[in-house]
Automatic annotation (TrEMBL):
SUPFAM superfamilies, per the entry: Glycerol-3-phosphate (1)-acyltransferase (SSF69593)
Protein name according to UniProt: 1-acyl-sn-glycerol-3-phosphate acyltransferase
GO molecular function terms noted in the UniProt entry: 1-acylglycerol-3-phosphate O-acyltransferase activity
Function field: Converts 1-acyl-sn-glycerol-3-phosphate (lysophosphatidic acid or LPA) into 1,2-diacyl-sn-glycerol-3-phosphate (phosphatidic acid or PA) by incorporating an acyl moiety at the sn-2 position of the glycerol backbone.
Species this chain originates from: Mustela putorius furo (European domestic ferret)
This protein's UniProt keywords: Acyltransferase, Lipid biosynthesis, Lipid metabolism, Membrane, Phospholipid biosynthesis, Phospholipid metabolism, Signal, Transferase, Transmembrane, Transmembrane helix
NCBIfam families documented for this protein: AGP_acyltrn
Pathway note: Phospholipid metabolism; CDP-diacylglycerol biosynthesis; CDP-diacylglycerol from sn-glycerol 3-phosphate: step 2/3
Length: 278
């Protein structure tokens, strides 16, 4: 029995569903995104191993080259203000808001030289994606064991000063699409004070006008990105962590709410909209 007619019919049915159903379009795009992540990670891992023969921050250039192409597939644009503030030649802690699985594209758009991220340990087991993260020098932290996490953060502090690294952290600690910022966790601020390096906040506007898993929305759109002035930590101690957290949170929240009100490319208005900040 010939399979081609059945395969053709199934493909046509799938295309019809994607055209008619918003949910089908959403899941089709998410599937495509995951497939791109796996395939790009596989190819990038081979290139990294051939080029640098193992784990090094220099591999982030290769990873970035692949990921910044994703935006063309999904019709996304990034408008970045203040990008030069990240191009410093000394260690720093970069903090940004965390909204969805699409954040990786935004991160790579703004990623400066010699910058690595801190990620949860579970991600290292994601096949080619985990492998490419490891090869890129990303630090993995077990958030379930605070003592182990503190040891990793201490090692990160030593490495960033010794190797002149920038470290990118999501201080909210988890994805958040509620139209506001979650309270920050202390890790990024302890790290900055421990190493006496500045903190540079980066804010991404709300994705809600083009990406919303609850309503199965995934269209094209524009993401506004704003890099704020560095916040110095020289001379601060652990006792200053709460005030430092509050200063950064207020500045980032104010900027997030402002840039998220900017009309987006698809005609909708990004940001909290009917979801006022609590």
């Amino acid at each position: 029995m010939e399979l081609w007619p059945w395969l053709t019919a199934a493909l046509l049915l799938l295309l019809l569903l994607v055209q008619l159903s918003r949910s089908a379009r959403f899941y089709a795009k998410i599937t495509l995104y995951c497939a791109l992540c796996v395939s790009a990670s596989t190819v990038a891992a081979v290139v990294c191993l051939l080029r640098h023969h193992g784990r090094t921050v220099e591999n982030m250039r290769i990873i970035k080259w692949f990921v910044v192409k994703f935006k063309y597939v999904f019709g996304l644009r990034f408008e970045i203000k203040g990008l030069q503030k990240l191009e410093v030649d000394h260690p720093c802690v970069i903090i940004s808001n965390h909204q969805s699985i699409l954040d990786m594209m935004g991160l790579m758009e703004a990623l400066p030289e010699r910058c690595v991220q801190i990620a949860k340990r579970e991600l290292i087991f994601l096949g080619p994606v985990g492998l490419i993260m490891y090869l890129g020098g990303i630090f993995f932290i077990n958030r379930q064991h605070s003592r182990t996490a503190m040891t990793v953060m201490a090692d990160v502090g030593e490495r960033m000063v010794r190797d002149n690294l920038k470290v990118w952290i999501y201080p909210e600690g988890t994805r958040n699409d509620n139209g506001d910022l979650l309270p920050f966790k202390k890790g990024a601020f302890y790290l900055a004070i421990q190493t006496q390096v500045p903190i540079i906040p980066v804010i991404y506007s709300s994705f809600s006008s083009f990406y919303n898993p609850k309503t199965k929305l995934f269209t094209s759109g524009t993401i506004k990105v704003e890099v704020l002035d560095a916040v110095p930590t020289r001379g601060l101690t652990v006792a200053d962590v709460p005030k430092l957290m509050d200063t950064c949170h207020q500045a980032m929240r104010t900027t997030f709410l402002r840039v998220s009100k900017t009309p987006q490319e698809n005609g909708a208005t990004a940001g909290p909209g009917s979801q006022p900040a609590q």
